[in-house]
Amino acid sequence: MLRKTSTLLVILLFVLMPTASYAASFTVRVIYFLPIDTSAAPNVDAKIDRLVKSAQKFFANEMERHGYGRKTFTLETNAKGKIVVHHVKGRFSRAYYQTINQTKSELPKQFVNQNNISLILLEGNQFHELLENKFCGKGGDWINGVTFYSGTALVPASGPCFNASVIAHELGHTFGLRHNFENHRYLMGTGSDLLAPCEAEWLNEHHYFNKTKILNNAPKVTRRYEPQAEVNNKIRLKVVLEDPDGLYHVHFYVTDNLELIGYQSLNGERDTAEVVVHRSKLRNYKELYLQPMDLNGNYYIYNIPIRSLPDSIDPEPIVREKSPPQMPDFSYLKNIDVDGNGLVNVADLDIVISNLGKNIKEDADTNPDVNRDGIVTQTDVDLIIKQLNAAAAPTAPKVPKQTQLLPNYPNPFNPETWIPYQLAAPTNVRVHIYEASGTLVRSLTPGHQPAGIYQHRSRAIYWDGKNAMGESVASGVYFYTLTAGDFTGTRKMLIRK
């Protein structure tokens, strides 16, 4: 996946529309790949143009946000500025195509062994289905660290995965970015909003984000240190890098899912790259990937073996399984706050008095039956008056000590649910809802909220089970992420129809 080590000569049968030509180097070329049992979708070229340019704009916006100007990658376009979409007819049915190599092996020679990136959009949506909804696409770079910097991304050309965020994510892999789960909003994790600062710094000198390219040898590892034990059960990994063109940046990854575990800016022709990580991050790995770049954008991927981990210099902590946190019962205060606005006042008393003698169902949204005995009586009036007579009657629970995302209710649900939370301080609040694949479904933005507990239906965030287009979503597992100031939390929910 990470670099190409050999070239196979394959006799290919294909139909190419229009005839491909050699594009300028360091260009992203778009290929619409049709398995033999599929046909082109209506107006597909226009949709591809819109989505891929949205991905291109995302990188420009994020690079500008990080202070690097509106740098982004170059697309192969025609004289009118439209993306050139190369239509390629495959030799097999859509069930056959599950990997990058299966599609790449059938591309014309114009797309092979060039300093270009191929974005393959596979018609039929079978790619996502065959991966059991675990992934929406695949992407990787093929480099030799000297003169060859290429890559291929594979994304379904239909279905929920055919969107600008997935395209941008997989292209990110072709630019040398791996997975980054540090923040749920990061594009290279499960989000769709942001590039991490280290990712923008990497792209700032990447060949595909710069008009001037100087191809030369990538940085070399000249010394490797044995892993060193640190306090708090952490491990220090360290290597020495050298490059006569000047060192720029380095990323460290674990080899299983290519997850970023560290990064560092570099200086001079010789520098030490090191990362300190928790022992648990390395326990299951025998090697790491080290990816250094020089000031000209030349980079390479090195395997760093981990023969053994040093003994901890502090005792292994005893981890006791914690019981799930129990929410305090605020039902009494909730019942007294009849109108659910967070205040106990005369308005609540008026509602109770105006309903004296009436039978009330327990699940009524505005329930004047304070003691929940099924009928509004003088007892309910007395409970309100007692609360009002208190000098500083509690109108809501105390301000919580910490911000938390609470379990949604009901769960499972169909079609609507409420997402409760609590805030330790006033802040802006946003909730993003994702499919299990990581695709963003809906964003809910109640805006700036005061500190407090948002648990009642009148205060919790409401989701009607629809996406951003107003369409009801399918049954299945979804994730919701709350962002409130520096806090980010994620929970799982289930729609069952």
Per DSSP E runs of 2 or more residues, the count of β-strands stands at 23
Helix content: 10-25%
Largest sheet: spatial strand order: 1-3-2-4-6-5
Question: Uncertain regions: pLDDT < 50 for 5+ in a row?
Answer: 1-23, 127-133, 391-397
Number of domains: 4
**Count of DSSP helices?**
8
The class by helix and strand makeup works out as alpha+beta
Radius of gyration: 28 Å
- According to CATH, what is the topology of the largest domain? Collagenase (Catalytic Domain)
What is the CATH architecture term of the largest domain? 3-Layer(aba) Sandwich
Question: Separation of termini?
Answer: 39 Å
Approximate shape: globular
Please provide a written account of the structure:
This protein folds into 4 domains: 15-209, 3-Layer(aba) Sandwich (Collagenase (Catalytic Domain)), CATH 3.40.390; 220-305, Immunoglobulins (Immunoglobulin-like); 331-389, Dockerin domain (Type 1 dockerin domain, Orthogonal Bundle); 404-495, Immunoglobulin-like (Sandwich), CATH 2.60.40. The chain has helices at residues 44-65, 100-104, 126-130, 164-174, 197-204, 331-336, 346-354, 378-389; strands spanning 15-17, 28-34, 85-89, 117-122, 138-143, 149-156, 220-224, 228-230, 234-242, 247-254, 260-265, 270-278, 287-294, 302-305, 404-405, 417-419, 421-423, 427-435, 440-449, 452-454, 461-463, 476-484, 487-495. A 6-stranded mixed beta sheet has the order 1-3-2-4-6-5. Strands 7, 8, 9 and 12 form a 4-stranded antiparallel beta sheet that branches. A 4-stranded antiparallel beta sheet has the order 11-10-13-14, with helices on one face. The protein has 8 helices and 23 strands. With 497 residues, the chain is α+β, with helices and mostly antiparallel strands. The model is unreliable at 1-23, 127-133 and 391-397 (pLDDT under 50). Strand 5 (138-143) and strand 6 (149-156) form a beta hairpin. The longest helix is centred in the N-terminal third of the chain and has 22 residues, at 44-65. Helix 1 (44-65) packs across helix 4 (164-174) and helix 7 (346-354) packs antiparallel against helix 8.
